[in-house]
TrEMBL record:
Source organism per UniProt: Photobacterium leiognathi lrivu.4.1
UniProt-recorded name of the protein: Uncharacterized protein
Length: 253
């Protein structure tokens, strides 16, 4: 119970801090779905949910900037106390603000697409191409007819526990289609965000994660073009096209 109370205290303090910042600060750029807790009433009970992430540059005047640091110190300590009581040692990802000092004059926001890759080899991979709830089984049957016409190994799997139906194929069907022994499969996982902080003084610019950045004065904000493609990067003209597969496929040489 004590651990639960400490987590409640942390979330209460964080909710108050984010609301105060939203009301007193000036947003210079905001790439967040929400920068405050989202509230809803369920059967007369007030429920709140914290934002999943915050990507924002917020300007505060000097006096508010110092007050924000003091308020955040209380929030951070409440978080540390709750983690210690829970026996959590790792540094959890959280929506903590990053305070940028007054010498900052410019922030370049850099966004690059992120992918995860794996190699499709012969006889070692099943690929799931479709999934739905059991209530929409007719969709699965329709998709099975279409998928099995392209990939002979297509199978339907019914999972009672999760109440889902999926259609999978043997990876060999894909390898055979392109006469390949191995194929690289890349899946888009989202975007990677960084912020490059440029200073007025003689310091070199610093790279920081683009999270919740707070500055004590207005700074110039620039969206930087994506990084130049590496020589060994995958090219669109080399991409293989296979029906019903959501991965980007590239034949390994």
């Amino acid at each position: 119970m004590a651990e639960l109370n400490k987590w409640r205290n942390f979330f209460m303090l964080e909710e108050e801090l984010l609301k105060w910042l939203d009301e007193t600060g000036t947003s210079l750029v905001n790439d967040s779905d929400s920068t405050t807790y989202v509230e809803k009433i369920v059967q007369g009970i007030r429920l709140t949910r914290p934002p999943k992430y915050i990507r924002q540059v917020l300007h505060l005047t000097d006096d508010l900037y110092e007050e924000a640091q003091a308020r955040f110190a209380d929030v951070k300590q409440a978080f540390v106390d709750a983690k210690l009581d829970d026996g959590i040692d790792d540094e959890s990802k959280i929506r903590f603000p990053i305070f940028i000092d007054s010498a900052a004059s410019q922030i370049n926001i850099i966004k690059n697409a992120a992918y995860k890759s794996k190699v499709l080899k012969r006889n070692d991979t099943q690929l799931t191409l479709f999934k739905c709830d059991v209530e929409t089984e007719h969709l699965a049957l329709d998709m099975f007819d279409k998928i099995s016409a392209v990939y002979p190994s297509a199978e339907i799997f019914r999972r009672l526990l999760s109440k889902t139906i999926s259609i999978s194929i043997n990876g060999n069907d894909v390898l055979d289609k392109f006469d390949a022994s191995e194929i690289t499969m890349r899946e888009y996982t989202g975007n990677q965000y960084r912020a490059k902080i440029v200073f007025d003084d003689e310091r070199e610019s610093e790279s920081e994660k683009y999270g919740f950045l707070i500055v004590p004065h207005s700074v110039a904000i620039f969206n930087t073009v994506p990084q130049k493609r590496r020589n060994d990067a995958y090219k669109e003209e080399d991409r293989l096209h296979a029906p019903f597969i959501h991965y980007d496929l590239y034949k390994r040489m």
